[in-house]
Amino acid sequence: MGIKKRNKGLHEGVRMGKELISVLDNFKGKKILVIGDIMLDKSIWGDVTRISPEAPVQVVNVDKETYAPGGAANTANNISALGGDVSVVGVVGNDSAREKLLEELRKKKINTEGIVVSEERPTIQKIRVMGKGQQLLRVDYEDDSEISKDVRGKIFDKIKKIIDSVDAIIISDYAKGIVTKALFYDIMRIAANKIIVVDPKTKYAIHYKGVTLVTPNNYEAGVMANIEIKNKEDLVKAGKKLLESLQSNILITRGEKGMSLFEKDGNITEIETKAKEVYDVTGAGDMVLATLAISLAAGFDYKTSVQLSNVTAGIAVEQFGTVTVTIEQVADEIVRQGKSGKVRSIDLLLDELTWHRRSNNIIVFTNGCFDVLHRGHIEYLEFCKAQGDIVVVGLNSDSSVKAIKGPDRPINNQYDRAAVLAALETVDYITLFDEPDPLNLIKKLKPNVLVKGQDWAEKGVIGREFVESYGGKVTLAPLVEGKSSTTIIEKMKPLEINPESGKPVEL
What we know:
The chain is built from 18 helices and 21 strands. The protein has helices spanning 14-24, 72-81, 96-107, 149-162, 181-190, 218-225, 232-246, 284-297, 302-316, 327-337, 346-358, 375-386, 398-405, 414-422, 439-445, 456-459, 464-469, 485-491; strands at residues 3-6, 31-36, 38-51, 58-71, 85-93, 111-118, 124-131, 134-141, 168-172, 195-199, 213-214, 249-253, 259-262, 268-271, 363-368, 390-396, 429-433, 449-453, 473-477, 495-497, 504-506. The longest helix has 15 residues, at 232-246. By secondary structure, the chain is α/β, with parallel strands linked by helices. It has 2 domains: 3-337, UDP-N-acetylmuramoyl-L-alanine:D-glutamate ligase (3-Layer(aba) Sandwich), CATH 3.40.1190.20; 346-491, Rossmann fold, CATH 3.40.50.620. The protein is elongated, with a radius of gyration of 29 Å. The strands form 4 sheets. A 10-stranded mixed sheet has the order 1-14-13-12-11-10-9-2-5-6, sandwiched between helices. Strands 17-16-15-18-19 form a 5-stranded parallel sheet, with helices on both faces. Helices cover 37% and strands 26% of the residues.
């Protein structure tokens, strides 16, 4: 059983970036059922300018109040934001908080037909007072006693009506009395072959046996395994013990230390959290749960699903309050983290350009050998950048350069040439191509703007007809007189030493 290291969550290079982006398009329309403790999150926003004369406490001058689904309802909200079709099952009280929660859920197009109204308990509500960009106080309204047999029966009737049509089930247990042992066993009886992801609380942990994936945090995993987790060795012991006792895949979430995935096939994978500016961890666990379930429902493996949940949680903690993460934000983050370099395969580049186009970015394309970079190249690429938002450089491979320039070229190999181009702020992406001309590449990329040097005016710009056929633009860049790689290379030709005089003789 080996431990596989996943560097910084996404830094497996081009393959992983492409794989993660490809997952996103499969989220749309996946049907997810969320069962658990639904809540209303209320935030009171204001500014603190003085201490109360009545007691040594801060006085908040209120600017606004906002509402959002919380707890299991926040998990459902996150699935909706990721493109899923989500239904939520839970309990609310017969009170004003219920009306506000249902209103917020319906705004997010979340199916609320599975929500049961109980006269026995209030709608769970968490009120946070926010001042100067930080949480000052939280007030909770709740009854965490177990639901009655009657309410449990009503909940189960709701689940039975929905369960056959869903692709995955989330059990979001906040230990508020909804997910009882009896209800869980009822669900398991009718959930044959369904993907079930559980965010556990230790009270009923042992009863989650046989689900698809259980996601305890570091503390919960230690309690469930009866092991105090102080180091990596303790972590592995706890994960293996939970694998054996629950007969489920286990994901232990460890905050800023990342996540550890223990699969039933024996593989253990560590996913490190990329360093983030953490502003608020509210709802980060709900985001992880939502991403895991919708990724698995989309047919992707555990590692890919966990990688994505790491991305979405990282985005969530950079924002204040209970927030959702959109599919566009996830794609942007994958692209951003993948930019340890700018060189892309054509397939990955096409995926990433799709997202840039959805943001209405203008794609500019140019191509060349860029063998010995000089001032003319710099000004040329600055001209390209001025024509749009994203500059893609098609870089002739070494074999392509030889076919065009002869056997003595290029001076610098394709990787060195790409590295130098990648250092320029004016260049966003570089993709290598082997053909003598870029027509096939242009046809794949379909840029909004095609740029070539003014010297192509008479020769005819390759790709002009194709680009103009769909409304694209072809632009000729001015040349810097006397600046070319060929001229510079001629000046740099090696010197031969005259054996008689010992002095160099220019060839």
